[in-house]
Structure formats: C-alpha cells, structure tokens
Fold this sequence. Notes:
It is a single chain. The protein is of the alpha/beta class. The chain has 2 domains: 1-112 and 310-370, P-loop containing nucleotide triphosphate hydrolases (Rossmann fold), CATH 3.40.50.300; 126-305, RecF/RecN/SMC, N-terminal domain (Glutathione S-transferase Yfyf (Class Pi), Chain A, domain 2, Up-down Bundle), CATH 1.20.1050. It has helices at 36-48, 104-107, 128-142, 146-166, 174-213, 236-257, 278-281, 284-306, 323-336, and strands spanning 2-9, 17-19, 25-29, 67-76, 79-88, 91-96, 99-100, 113-116, 220-224, 269-273, 276-277, 311-315, 340-344, 356-362, 365-368. α5 crosses α6, α5 (174-213) crosses α8 and α8 (284-306) packs parallel to α9 (323-336). The longest helix has 40 residues, at 174-213. The radius of gyration is 22 Å and the shape is globular.
Amino acid sequence: MQLLALEAERLRNLAPLRLEPHPRFNVFEGDNGQGKTNVLEAIYLLATLRSFREARARNLVCWGESDAWVRGEIERRGIRRKMGVELAKTGKRAAIDGRVVDRLSEYFGHLHVVVFGPEDLVLTKGAPVNRRRFLDRAIFNLHPSYLDEMRAFVTALKHRNELLRASAGRGVDRALLASFDEELIRRGGRVLWRRTRFVSDFLPVVRAVFDDVTAGAHAIGVDYESLAGLAADADEDACTELYRQRLSEATPSDLRQRRTTQGPHTDDLAFSLDGFPARVHASQGQHRAMALALKIAELQLADSVLGGPPLLLLDDVSSELDRGRNAQLMAHLSRAAGQIFVTTTDRRWIAVDGETQVFRVEAGRVLPEP
C-alpha cells in the first residue's frame, strides 16, 4: 500500500500542498507550530474522513475560509486509485476516481493508516477513553463496517439516555424502555463481539512484540474487562446475552442516575506486567515499552489481515523516547512497516539509514530537501 501523491488546500495553516512521498521514510522537520502534524492529519483525513485529534471536521478548514480539500493517489495490489475529500459548511463529500460516493462503505477500505502520537505513550496508564479509542481505531482499520456499527450503538445509547432523563420525577414508561433496551442490547452486543475478537487476535501478537522489545525480560497481558468470564472465542450471541444481563442488573441504578452506566461506552482494557496490574507495578519506562509494543503489534496485525502494511503516521514520538527506545522503534519499523510519515523538530532523532526523504516545514509551507 503506497501513497503516491498528496495535495491539500485551505487545510489548517498549510499553504497549498503538493508532494510525492518517498515509498519508505518521509520525515517532516520543523519547529513546533509550523504545520508538521497538519500534514499527517491530511493523510489521516484522506483515509478515514476524520481527524485523529479533532472531533469536528469543520474545524480543519483554515480560519476565514469556507471550505478545504485533500486529494491523493494511492496504489494497492497493483491498482491505482484517486481519492479525495472536501470539507464545507454543509458537510463532507468523498470521491473515488472522481466519482462522489453515496455510501461511506464505498470509500473506506482503499487506504489504511495507523497513527502513533505522544498521547499513545501513556496509553496503558491514562484515561479509559483513550484505550477505547485505540480499540475502535484498530478495529475500524481492519473492518471499516465497524464505523457504522459503532454509530448505531451510539445512536441507541443516546435515545435510551434521553428517555431516562425525560422520565425524571414522573416514572419511566417500562414498555418504551424495554424497546429501547432491545435496540441498545443488539447494537452493543455487536460492538462487544468486535472488540473481544480483536483482543483475542491481538494478544499473541503484542506478547511476541513485547518479548522482543524487552529482550524477554517481561511479559505483557491484555484483557477486555467487559467480557470477564466469557471464552476468548465467544460468539456474537454470547456477547449480546452478557450485555443483556449487565444492562438488566444496572437498570435500577440507571433510573436513579438518569443515564446508562453499562456498555461499550464505559468499558476498558486492563494491562498486566508479569502477571501484576501494570497501572500499579509498571515503571514509566515499562509503560512506554508497552505502548511501543501495542502500536507495533497493531501494525503487524493489520499487515497480516490486510495483506500488506498500512501507512504509519508517527507524530513527534521520537522526541518523547530515550535513545534506546527510539532505536528499538526504528529497528522494528525498518523491518515491519511499509510507508512511514514522521514529524520531528530534529531529524537526528530519526535513526534510519537511507530510503528517506526529508521535508522542511515552515509556516505551513512543505518543501522537500535535496
């Protein structure tokens, strides 16, 4: 999978962007605030129709402008495609080979990306929402239909919460709540199943990578807490029935709190180090080693499922790592990754030899260096 060309206009602070990336390492060097991350954001937007750091796509448009667009030419399995996305006040429009798509399923699946930023270095000890985001991004990369499945769950959750809030002080219509519950259980069971299948496939990969990163000194464990007690190969029906039980048990509390307290929106990943909870027992360096292993394993699993490595976006990660961890990361990427896009304030932190194109980024202008 290769990004052959990238164009963007009126995106963030970027000047009109035209570049032909190197097939291996692309390093974007510049001071903070110059627009390096915006280049990665353009690539991520092209692949996923969203930003990896901004909830509202409209906010990606340059201040004072009414619209923005990103276009790219990609090659996968010998087939070339032209992809494009336009951001405007009325929403987003996506196109493949010049034809605007009506359904997102027509757009997704052509270009896959994995992103790794400084916030991921505290993934194993930070807030649960970050671990849920990691799960959902990784699953979407492998199964683009997961986006619609998650959206359906979020809609069902919103409707149930609105009913719970509206019933305050006058009692809830039990028949209506039961119908809302059924929709939430059906949608939530699907999400739970997707997540538990991913963790089951992911665990052996991350164990092997972590063993390599730590030279066999430590062992990592990953559990999806929502499905405690279920077999790793539990099917969708089993996940759905578990959620039905959990939701039923939580309903009295939900009625008091006027919100849904159980479901994929509250779940978490639990990490262990040598059999002990990582949050309590792991050092700062061990947390970072686990984060490196998670991202490298995500890349490797995507490679095996997709039949080739996705694009990797590294946003100023090297400056956050010590020399040893940085060398480990680059060594793994040199062996396992395909096309890589890296931002940095100093290219000397990017320890790769050859196969590299450096771009200088200043005030939104991106210029290749000879």
